[in-house]
Amino acid sequence: MKPLNLQTPCWNDARRDAQRAAQERTARLMNWFLQERDKQAENRFQQAIDEDFYDGLQWSDEDAQELVSRGQAPLVFNQVKPTINWMLGTERRTRIDGKVLPREESDETGAETKTKLLKYLSDVNRTPFTRSAAWKSCIVAGLGWMEDCIETDPTRELLATRAVDWKSIY
């Protein structure tokens, strides 16, 4: 059998075609990302304002400066934060654990085992706290995310649950 010559025109054409296809895919993905970023710009701006309101930053710089120039203090009596904190406390008080129910009587032991597995993963990953963080983001900014993923750190549990900030997701 004759050895493969990697310098043949056929091989170079195939490699060039593969590189061109990869560049086209990358350009298409980047175009989609930029389109989505532009579509979401106004909404994300409003979400940032919503977070500022929760934090008590309720005056624009121009309005606050106008008040200061008139000799008035730009005071904020934040009614947003206590209301949201009440909702967060309600969520914390009503936390529940999941339960897997069997479809048939013969599935009872499997359902119990799955319930124990879900409880173990919830405890190890502190899922109730993760859920609370996602809920807080949801009621403050209007969008909350949770991620179930494979953990690459060998010292941690393989299956992980995390809260993801809305700013990280497009």
Structure explained in plain terms:
- The chain is mostly helical and 170 residues long.
- The radius of gyration is 26 Å and the shape is flat.
- The protein has helices spanning 9-54, 61-69, 80-93, 108-125, 127-141; strands at 145-150, 159-164.
- 60% of the residues lie in helices and 7% in strands.
- The mean pLDDT is 92.
- Helix 3 runs antiparallel to helix 5 (127-141).
- The protein has a two-stranded antiparallel sheet.
List keywords for this structure.
170 residues, two-stranded antiparallel ribbon, 5 helices, 2 strands
Shape: flat
Radius of gyration: 26 Å
As a percent range, the share of strand residues is: 5-15%
Q: Approximately how much helix is present in the residues?
A: 55-70%
Number of helices: 5
Q: Give a short account of the largest sheet.
A: 2 strands, antiparallel
Strand order of the largest sheet: 1-2
What is the averaged pLDDT score? Answer: 92
Kindly state the number of beta strands.
Answer: 2
Give me the secondary-structure category.
mainly alpha
C-alpha termini separation: 52 Å
Low-pLDDT segments, ≥5 res: none
What is the chain-wise order of helices and strands? HHHHHEE
Topology:
Elements (H helix, E strand, L loop, with lengths): L8 H46 L6 H9 L10 H14 L14 H18 L1 H15 L3 E6 L8 E6 L6
Antiparallel strand pairs: 1-2
Helix pairs in contact: 3-5
Summarize the structure.
With 170 residues, the protein is mainly α. It contains 5 helices and 2 strands.
